[in-house]
Design goal:
twelve-stranded mixed sheet, 25 strands
C-alpha cells in the first residue's frame, strides 16, 4: 500500500491519498485478523462491526489464536501545546510490528465530536500513521456515540416522566444526579433549568449536560464483557436519591432498574457494543471502539475490543488518553483490574519539543536547541517512567517522536537520563515514514515482551478494599507525587454516604486536569510541595467505580476562541477538508 512516503501534506490529505483507492476491502482485513465472514457486519466497504459472539463463543475453537497475544500500552508524558503524538505512535507501532513480520493489531478509542470541532482535533493518528477511513472515524463513524447519547437521555427522560406521572419511587427532584449528554463542547449547557412552562411541561428543576464521553453509559459500554453484563451494569446506575433518610442516616438511592429502563437502554446499545474493525494506512487491522475521556472518565477503549484483538493477534497495541498519570493509571488500576488484563510492556511517548515546553520554553521558541530547558523539563518524563516501572512494575520503553529541528545533543541527553533509570529510548519517525519509521520501537517492544517469556511483576497502585480516602491518597502520593490530599466538606459527606451504602470497595476514577501532574494546569514539569484538593465524589455504580473530581475539572468542555469547526468544510463532490 501507499508507496510514496515522501508526500508530506496535512493529515487529511495524506489519508485521502490512500483511501479509498489503496485501501483493502474490510473482508480482507477481517480475513487477515482471522475473523470468519459470518461474524462481520458491513458498514460499507471499509468499516465493519464484529459480532461479539465470535469472542464469547468461538475463540476457543480458533487453534493457535486461543492464547492471548501480548498487550502493549502506549501512554505519554503530560500533554503540552507542543504535541506528543500518542495515537500516531500507537498506529505507527502496530505498522512497525507488522513490517518486521509480527501479527499485530491496534486497539484505539473513537474520537469525540467535541474535540474534533474544538481544539484538539480527531483521534485517528497523523501523517503516515493513521487509521482509515479517517473522515468517517472522526465524524459519525458507525453511530456508537449517538446510541450512547440516546440511551443516556432515555434514562433522563424516564426519570422526569416518573416524577410527572406520580413519583411512586419518592424521588427528590433536588437530588437527581443523572444528567443529560450531548457529544459536543457546549459550555452553555453545563447548568440549565428545565421543565418550565407550567405543569404540563414537567417539574421545574436545575439540570445540566455532560459531554457524551463523560457519561456513565460510555464507561459501562467500554467495561462490559457482553450484552448480559451490559444490561446488569445499566440497571445498577444510581440516578437519584429519595426524600427522607434511612435509619442509619443515609439517603436511599434510586437505580435505573427501579425505573425499568435497563432493557430499553441495552436495546439501543446492542449494536454499539460490537467492536468496529478498520485498518491503518498500511493495511494493519485495527479495532476502534468506545471513547471515554481520561481526564473525566477512565480513558480506554472497550474491553470487548481489546479482548477480541488479543485473540486475533500476537501483538496488540492500545493507548490510554492523555498522560500516564491519567490514562495509564486508569487503564492499569481500573480496566486491567476488571478485565484481568496484564500488559507485557508500556511505551511512553515524548517529544523534545514538549519536554522543553515543560522546562518553560514558549511555543514559538521550541525549535531552538535549549539543553538547559530540556534538562528542566525532563523530570516530567522521568516521573512517568518511574511510576510505570516502580509503582506498577512494568517494563517500559520511551518513544521519542522525531521532529526535524531536534538536535543530536538534545536526543542524547534524553537517552542518557532514561538509561539511568534502566529504560531504553527508541526514535520514532512514524509520522513521516509510517511502519518503516517504527521499526526501532517495534524491535524494542518485542524484546521487552519476549524477555522472561513475557512475564512481569505487574501490581496495582492500591488495594481496592482500602477506604476511599486511602485509595485517593495512594494515587495522589504515588502517581502524582503530591504531599497529601485535602477533601472538602461536601466531598467528605459524599464519601460517608457511599460508605454507609457499602458502595466504597471499588476502584477510584480521578477527574483531574490533563495539563499537570497536579490539580493546577499551570504547574508544569514534576511539581512538588502541593496538596490535591478533592471537591466532589460521585458513584458510577454501573461502571463499577467512584469518580473523584479535583481542582476545577469540568464534565462539559467549551469551545476555544477559534474552534476547529471554522476550518472544516465539504465540497460539492462530498470531499471533506479541514479535519486533523
Amino acid at each position: 500500500m501507499a508507496e510514496n512516503k515522501k508526500f508530506a501534506g496535512s493529515d487529511i490529505e495524506i489519508a485521502q491519498s490512500v483511501y479509498p483507492k489503496d485501501a483493502f476491502h474490510i473482508d480482507e482485513i477481517a480475513k487477515q485478523a482471522g475473523i470468519p465472514g459470518e461474524f462481520i457486519e458491513h458498514y460499507g466497504k471499509y468499516k465493519a462491526k464484529v459480532d461479539y459472539n465470535f469472542l464469547l463463543e468461538n475463540h476457543d475453537k480458533a487453534g493457535s489464536q486461543s492464547k492471548d497475544g501480548h498487550l502493549i500500552l502506549v501512554t505519554a508524558i503530560t500533554p503540552t501545546p507542543a504535541g506528543e503524538g500518542k495515537t500516531t505512535t500507537t498506529v505507527g507501532l502496530a505498522d512497525g510490528l507488522s513490517s518486521i513480520g509480527k501479527n499485530a493489531m491496534a486497539a484505539l478509542r473513537e474520537p469525540s465530536l467535541g474535540p474534533v470541532f474544538g481544539v484538539k482535533g480527531g483521534a485517528a493518528g497523523g501523517g503516515w500513521a493513521q487509521i482509515i477511513p479517517m473522515e468517517d472515524i472522526n465524524l459519525h463513524f458507525t453511530g456508537d456515540f449517538h446510541a450512547i447519547g440516546a440511551a443516556n437521555n432515555l434514562l433522563a427522560a424516564m426519570i422526569d416522566n416518573h416524577i410527572y406521572q406520580g413519583n411512586t419511587l419518592n424521588i427528590d427532584p433536588r437530588k437527581i444526579i443523572w444528567r443529560r449528554c450531548v457529544d459536543m463542547n457546549d459550555r452553555q449547557l453545563r447548568f440549565i433549568v428545565d421543565g418550565l412552562g407550567g405543569k404540563a411541561n414537567g417539574f421545574p428543576r436545575e439540570d445540566g449536560y455532560d459531554i457524551t464521553v463523560a457519561s456513565e453509559v460510555m464507561a459501562i459500554l467500554c467495561l462490559a464483557s457482553g450484552i448480559d453484563d451490559l444490561k446488569d451494569r445499566l440497571g445498577r446506575i444510581i440516578v437519584a436519591y429519595t426524600y427522607g433518610k434511612q435509619s442509619d442516616g443515609s439517603e436511599q438511592p434510586v437505580t435505573a432498574a427501579q425505573l425499568k429502563a435497563q432493557g430499553a437502554m441495552a436495546a439501543l446499545l446492542k449494536d454499539a457494543l460490537k467492536p468496529n474493525l478498520v485498518q491503518t494506512l498500511e493495511g494493519t487491522p485495527a479495532f476502534v471502539h468506545g471513547g471515554p475521556f481520561a481526564n473525566i472518565a477512565h480513558g480506554c477503549n472497550s474491553i470487548m475490543a481489546t479482548r477480541l484483538a488479543l485473540k486475533c493477534a500476537d501483538y496488540v497495541v492500545t493507548e490510554a488518553g492523555f498522560g500516564a498519570d491519567l490514562g495509564a493509571e486508569k487503564f492499569l488500576d481500573i480496566k486491567c483490574r476488571f478485565a484481568g488484563l496484564k500488559p507485557s510492556a508500556v511505551v511512553i511517548v515524548a517529544t523534545v519539543r514538549a519536554l522543553k515546553s515543560h522546562g518553560g520554553v514558549p511555543k514559538a521558541e521550541l525549535n531552538n536547541e535549549n539543553l538547559a530547558a530540556l534538562e528542566a523539563g525532563l523530570p516530567n518524563l522521568l516521573q512517568h517512567i518511574e511510576n510505570i516501572t516502580k509503582v506498577y512494575k512494568l517494563p517500559a520503553v520511551v518513544a521519542i517522536n522525531a521532529f526535524p529541528k531536534d538536535t543530536k545533543a538534545e536526543l542524547d541527553l534524553v537517552e542518557a537520563k532514561c538509561r539511568a533509570l534502566g529504560v531504553n529510548v527508541a526514535l520514532s519517525e512514524v509520522w513521516a515514514k509510517g511502519g518503516e519509521g517504527g521499526v526501532q520501537l517495534a524491535e524494542e517492544v518485542v524484546r521487552l515482551c519476549e524477555q522472561q517469556g513475557g512475564s512481569n511483576n505487574f501490581e496495582f497502585c492500591y488495594d481496592v478494599n482500602s477506604s476511599i480516602r486511602e485509595k485517593i491518597e495512594a494515587i495522589a502520593t504515588k502517581i502524582y507525587h503530591a504531599d497529601g490530599i485535602a477533601i472538602l466538606p461536601a466531598a467528605q459527606k459524599q464519601i460517608e454516604q457511599l460508605e454507609k451504602l457499602k458502595l466504597d470497595k471499588v476502584p477510584v476514577c480521578m477527574a483531574k486536569t490533563q495539563y499537570s501532574f497536579s490539580d493546577d494546569p499551570a504547574l508544569r514539569g514534576a511539581p512538588r510541595g502541593w496538596t490535591l484538593t478533592v471537591r466532589n465524589i460521585k458513584i458510577s455504580a454501573g461502571a463499577g467505580f467512584i469518580v473523584a473530581l479535583t481542582g476545577e475539572i469540568m464534565t462539559m468542555p467549551g469551545l476555544p476562541p477559534v474552534p476547529a469547526a471554522e476550518k472544516i468544510d465539504v465540497d460539492s463532490a462530498g470531499k471533506i477538508s479541514g479535519l486533523f
